[in-house]
């Protein structure tokens, strides 16, 4: 087995490379300009890297890259998101004259952020038909990244507190670290309970290997708090934060592996390896 990475490695790629070597895998870094014949013939490649890198090498390696559907978040029942979400186009979103949260469904060509109105969205570059998710504005008190494999949480990490980067292991649950260096997260049970309900109901609408972010949202008008889905992302370009890299690697290997090993369920979630309209670069990992 071979893990293929870009020449420039981020922290997650470094951790995954080390985890791959520990289990006896080869690790190869490619420029994206071409794939060596020996890797083309091997048929046992896997990938971690951005959309531009993936577009350059995945077809030559015959990889199936799994990702959630653009409208997955918008189709979730309200009790899993607690806000109105719609999948629309960049051109349509530009007509809005009210504050809104806008993000791309998957690729990070546009900063996910609150925009005062549609006039603040990019006016040049991405095609007006490029899909975007538009939602109401939500305040998340704490946010967690869940690496999901076969409908269950396989690895997890806190990544933000009050909107600021704050990585820490989600400690205390099954297969999650516990010890003097990993105090039990006070929200661990609540996170895993919410994730279990969500995945029991909705895992069938996701690829078998995927990243789902969830958070504790605060509703100032009602004075209450509730767990909600933040977003879903492809596992093969998602930051691991403080999650166990060995278990993250399990999810990445499934999410970006040989096409001939693909399970029937995942056929609906294969990413096209061509560049998408609106993609202006690889962006940073999710």
Automatic annotation (TrEMBL):
Q: Which residues form the ATP-grasp domain?
A: 80-251
Q: Return the Pfam families for the record.
A: R2K_2
- What protein name applies here? ATP-grasp domain-containing protein
The protein's superkingdom reads: Bacteria
Organism encoding this protein:
Dactylosporangium siamense
């Amino acid at each position: 087995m071979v893990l293929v990475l870009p020449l420039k490695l981020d922290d997650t790629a470094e951790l995954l490379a080390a985890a791959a070597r520990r289990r006896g895998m080869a690790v190869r870094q490619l420029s994206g300009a071409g794939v060596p014949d020996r890797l083309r013939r091997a048929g046992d490649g896997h990938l971690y890297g951005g959309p531009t890198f993936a577009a350059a090498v995945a077809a030559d390696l015959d990889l199936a890259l799994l990702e959630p559907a653009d409208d997955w978040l918008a189709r979730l029942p309200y009790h899993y998101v607690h806000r109105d979400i719609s999948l629309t186009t960049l051109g349509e979103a530009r007509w809005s004259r009210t504050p809104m949260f806008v993000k791309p469904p998957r690729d990070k060509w546009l900063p996910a952020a609150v925009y005062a109105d549609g006039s603040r969205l990019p006016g040049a570059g991405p095609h007006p038909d490029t899909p975007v998710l538009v939602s109401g504005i939500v305040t998340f008190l704490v946010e967690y990244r869940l690496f999901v494999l076969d409908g269950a949480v396989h690895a997890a990490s806190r990544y933000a507190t009050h909107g600021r980067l704050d990585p820490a292991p989600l400690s205390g649950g099954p297969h999650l670290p516990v010890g003097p260096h990993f105090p039990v997260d006070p929200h661990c049970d609540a996170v895993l309970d919410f994730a279990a309900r969500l995945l029991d109901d909705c895992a069938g609408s996701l690829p078998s290997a995927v990243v789902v972010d969830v958070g504790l949202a605060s509703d100032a008008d009602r004075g209450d708090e509730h767990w909600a889905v933040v977003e879903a992302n492809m596992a093969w370009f998602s930051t691991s934060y403080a999650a166990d890299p060995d278990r993250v690697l399990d999810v990445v290997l499934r999410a970006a592996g040989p096409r001939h090993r693909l399970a029937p369920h995942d056929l609906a979630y294969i990413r096209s390896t061509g560049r998408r309209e609106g993609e202006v670069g690889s962006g940073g990992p999710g």
